[in-house]
Amino acid sequence: MALILIDVINAMDFPxxxxxxxxxxxxxxxxxxxxxRARAAGVPTVYANDNYGRWRSDVRTTxxxxxxxxxxxxxxxxxxxxxxxxxxVLKPKHSAFYGTTLELLLSxxxxxxxxxxxFAGDSCVRFTAQDAFLRDLEVTIASDCIASEEVRxxxxxxxxxxxxxxxxxxxxARIDFRALKRARP
Length: 185
Description:
alpha/beta
């Protein structure tokens, strides 16, 4: 099992980025608490982050860019900065699986399930959930830990992930990592 944070280190310096940042900040505060509970249960946290076309970038460069003074995503990035024990995967496209080492990393962990959080719920989280489903992973979405530019878009993405991907959808406060580790998919 792993907790995957999708595109949470994000400058949000694109059209619609300020709207996304507004919705992302409350979700980020809940992600911090969820990440703390995952760590306490011995569940690894993996950051899967867009490389924004910067093929030479790494976690520090990505974080530094997102935390620039005038970046709409600054507060979110500062709140969710990775810790030394976290894993970080740079992704070139929407899905955290496409063109990345995520599948190998999850195999190394012996994962049969993932908990997904992040931005944007209607694209990157949804694409990642779909690719996890195609890899026969059990998918849980922390419904209050995703954000998109429009709240309606999150609702539609959640409905799709529930109905088409058999994702378990629940608020972050109801995700019990210890129980999920004990349960067999």
